[in-house]
Design brief:
With 100 residues, the protein is mainly alpha-helical. The chain has one domain. It is 83% helix and 0% strand. The longest helix has 29 residues. It starts with a helix and ends with a helix.
């Protein structure tokens, strides 16, 4: 399994691979929550709404957990000044582009 991940991420360090996978998992959880929410709003029976609403809650908690992990690692600082966030993202992008 590690060979597959190494092939996908190339020479990326474990930290940058973890960061990339974490951001991907956050995006996936957010998309899943949105999809379940849309399905919940369109559900015609209270039972189905309750089931789908439970899935929405699970996805929100999943996103919250991953976000907390990313913040604890220092990969994301949502309370920083927006210009500092943009600068950090720009540096990270340049770093990633420099590897390929």
């Amino acid at each position: 399994m590690s060979d597959i991940i190494s092939n996908i991420f190339g020479q990326a360090t474990d930290s940058s691979a973890d960061e990339t996978l974490s951001y991907s998992a956050m995006a996936s959880a957010a998309a899943g929550a949105g999809a379940y929410l849309a399905a919940t709003l369109q559900a015609t029976t209270p039972e189905l709404r309750a089931i789908l609403g439970g899935f929405v809650s699970q996805k929100v908690l999943e996103h919250d957990t991953i976000t907390e992990y990313v913040m604890n690692k220092g990969w994301m600082n949502p309370y920083d000044d927006p210009s500092k966030q943009l600068e950090s993202t720009f540096k990270q992008s340049n770093s990633m582009m420099g590897r390929h």
